[in-house]
Amino acid sequence: MFYIKTKRNHCIPIEDGDDGNVFTKCPGCGKEFEVDLSDFIVDGKLDMYGTAWYCTKCSANRHISA
After folding, report:
1. How far is CA 11 from the centre of its chain?
2. Mean pLDDT per 10-residue section of the chain, whose length is 66 residues
3. 23 φ, ψ to 5°?
């Protein structure tokens, strides 16, 4: 899930095309971090529902174990 954080720490889910201040949680460890949605664009399309983004540590561990 991708979401925008408000000043009151509320999380608002976003739809395709929203940008700025976008966060997600690592499916491996649950760490929250900011992402740039332009990094998800493949062949001119943005699939936010079929995509998961791992934090740096979990991503490195996945590559080592693969």
Report:
1. 13
2. 70 57 90 85 80 89 70
3. -125, 160
CA nearest neighbour of 39 among 12, 19, 60, 61: 19
Would you call 22 helix, strand, or coil by DSSP? Answer: strand
The beta strands (E) that lie in 1-66 are given as 2-5, 11-13, 22-25, 32-35
Range of the domain at 49: 2-65
Q: How many domains does the chain have?
A: 1
pLDDT in the model for residue 66: 53
pTM: 0.64
